[in-house]
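Tokens in:
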């Protein structure tokens, strides 16, 4: 029998259902902070706390404003990454909009694209979509 010299990899995942309310983005940030600061995630995951909270806030806000029904927030940490997934039952896909200097909206998706290593949208066969952002945790 041989002892492994490789460090143990921590993998953790949680999922929350949030109401379609403006306060859901705040709750989602609190849940994200708790998850990434917890003992189930690697110490590297906590280094992405600010970026993850910004991504979560943008995606949950979009889901509650433009989606239908409740939204689901799934967070996972594994192999040097933090993954944020937000699902809602709406049919409208996120899109880039032109915004003027005085515009208040339309900057969320471009901001998430800048922070994430990968950003994709998956359309569910029965309706709805999942927006997934993968952040580097190292």
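Residues out:
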């Amino acid at each position: 029998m041989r002892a492994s010299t490789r460090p143990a990899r921590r993998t953790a995942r949680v999922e929350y259902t949030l109401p379609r309310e403006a306060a859901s983005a705040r709750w989602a940030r609190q849940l994200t902070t708790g998850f990434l600061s917890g003992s189930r995630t690697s110490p590297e995951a906590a280094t992405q706390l600010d970026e993850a909270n910004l991504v979560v806030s943008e995606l949950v806000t979009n889901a509650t404003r433009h989606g239908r029904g409740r939204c689901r927030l799934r967070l996972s940490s594994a192999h040097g990454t933090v993954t944020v997934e937000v699902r809602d039952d709406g049919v409208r896909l996120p899109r880039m909009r032109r915004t003027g200097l005085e515009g208040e909206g339309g900057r969320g998706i471009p901001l998430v694209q800048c922070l994430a290593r990968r950003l994709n949208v998956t359309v569910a066969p029965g309706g709805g979509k999942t927006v997934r952002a993968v952040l580097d945790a190292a």
